[in-house]
Amino acid sequence: MAAALRLARAGVRVTVVESYDEPGGGLRSVTDATVPGLVHDLGAGFHPLLIDNPFTREVDLIAAGVEWAWPEVQFAHPLDAALDPGHGAAAYRSVEETAAGLGRDGAAWRRIFAPLVEGWDELAVDALQPPLHVPRHPVGLARFGAQAVLPAAVMARAFRTERARALWTGIATHGFRPPTVPMSSAIALMLGTAAHKYGWPVAVGGSQRIVDATTRLLAEAGGRVETGRRVASLDELGSPDLVMLDTGPGEALRILGDRAPALTRRSYGRWPAGPAAFQVSFAVDGGIPWDYEPARRAGTLHLGGSLADTTSAERSVERGRLPRLPYVLLGQQYLADPSRAQGSVVPIDCYAHVPAGWDDGDAALAAVVDRIAAYAPGFRDRVVATAVRGPAQLFAENPNWIGGDIAAGLVTPLRLAWGARPSLSPYDTGVAGVHLCSAVTPPGPGAHGLCGWNAAGVALDRLERAAAS
Ligand SMILES: Cc1cc2nc3c(=O)[nH]c(=O)nc-3n(C[C@H](O)[C@H](O)[C@H](O)COP(=O)(O)OP(=O)(O)OC[C@H]3O[C@@H](n4cnc5c(N)ncnc54)[C@H](O)[C@@H]3O)c2cc1C
User: Fold this and answer.
1) Is 428 helix (H, G, I), strand (E, B) or coil?
2) From the CB of 84, is ligand 1 less than 6 Å away?
3) Are 1 and 23 in contact (CB under 8 A)?
4) Tell me, what's the pLDDT at 136?
């Protein structure tokens, strides 16, 4: 939608073609998943990177009806008393408040995040752009890059307590990889800095409100959306000046067909698959009774245990085994936005990292419930209704999520830096006028709109140059 809006506002006549019955992709929310009326985000629920970025600076989502709301605690990481007598750690918008909760590791947390929060406006100019550009702030970018390339497990050596190591690891693991892989620190640095700079807000009424707003803005700019049509080939699109593929490389290859040049065929064909998500929506009477008090006020919870526990669980997943206690990312959006609840019954949306294509839904659901109940005895008694979306259903809903892989491929260092194909522009497919604009392009996964925004900028440049020549 970001790509569509940039093109439409530049005067291009745009049609968005969507295979599902409704637009939105990884931003949909529904009110009929568990108890009627409870608002569940089925995809992205938290939007730190949408608050102020090159896309939202041009496209005013607030003026278009989106209202942001923040939880008191941005994210929390409960721990067993055996690992941490305080039962866990929490991140607040303030670096100081977060550091204060980390005891003797407070200074290390402050050393990592305070300069990034302070310099974020300058850093973002370079970090959120396509990779090949002359940096506007090379010193800040180099400082960020030196930490970002490290495995999160290496950066974790800056901390002496399990509590701080776990808080750090929990954010690094958003990338669906063990914290021992290179560049897993990049994700922790970006998301941690965003939590302190912008908080992790939710959209009041559900993330669907963002979809509704962008759809409306697109219509105002003369664009339109056609749903329920899966594009299989370029040939069925007539001869448009531009095609923007919001797809994974595999789907892009199918659509490009014989027109894909050899380099594109090779790179897209070898695109590595990532693990899957097992998504669960719960309706819970009275909320989850977490032992760790700040978790009762936190928008997001990272349920992964210690650094060693998370590493072992993520490695099992990559080897195709379901861990006894998988890493679970859990959202309590209703705390920031009480309008999503129905009386005392509140919506909870979470997903576990499971092996690609995992098809034993009973085992995965039991593991998710065990994981939550380990930190919240009494959770089971409060569950009123449960709805699951396993890997097969996720793939059926969205062709980008092969085998339930909601990151549309393994999150590798090369992908974060270059996208799907080594070339001067990561948005090029090698076919004139056809661009890739999905989360497989820089700056990578997340509902920030910047893959589309950047790709449309490249496409418009080309279009203008072609018109001028
Ligand atoms: C459960 C879950 C939780 C998440 N939580 C967060 C979060 O809190 N914050 C965050 O920033 N991100 C989060 N994400 C990630 C975020 O949603 C994705 O990174 C983002 O949606 C990727 O955007 P995209 O445009 O690349 O792809 P998508 O959002 O997947 O959109 C691509 C669209 O293209 C359609 N499509 C694909 N192929 C075709 C075809 N051949 N023809 C027609 N249509 C086609 C798909 O149906 C889909 O609607 C989450 C994702 C999930 C699933």
Assistant:
1) strand
2) no
3) yes
4) 67
